[in-house]
Amino acid sequence: MNDGFEISTDPARLDPARIHHWLSTDAYWAIGRSRETQDRAIASSLNFGVYDTASGAQVAYARIVTDYATFSWLCDVYVDRSVRGKGVGSGLVTAVRDHLAPYGTRRILLATDDAHGVYAKVGFEPLDDPSQWMNLLFSRQPSARAEG
Known about the structure:
Helix 3 (88-100) links the parallel strand 4 and strand 5 (107-109). The protein is globular. By secondary structure, it is an alpha+beta fold. A 5-stranded mixed beta sheet has the order 1-2-3-4-5. The chain contains 5 helices and 5 strands. It has a single domain, classed as Aminopeptidase (3-Layer(aba) Sandwich).
């Protein structure tokens, strides 16, 4: 990525406190997410950070859940409000796509309420037949296992 930004998958560069703040306070899908939950998600995922080359500060984040063979789920994509509109989101999603391509992953899924245009720029399309897909939602209440 150019224009004063660089992308890295190095987990040591991530700013977990910043990521948690962004997602738990400003991302409609993760409002109120606990720091513990976010840290576990980071630890179990392939993570992408975008960094300002001048300051080194993290300005965007994306997380991938994948088996590196057949399936990937792109989630928790967030671009700091101060750099929105500068191509950071499109550059980040392009980097994710290009990183996963050599593995032969057949499908990358994501869900969005408001950023269809960003994802369409790099080749994402609506599902051909969404009726084939199902999900299982657990209760929003913390389980005994999660607490203990």
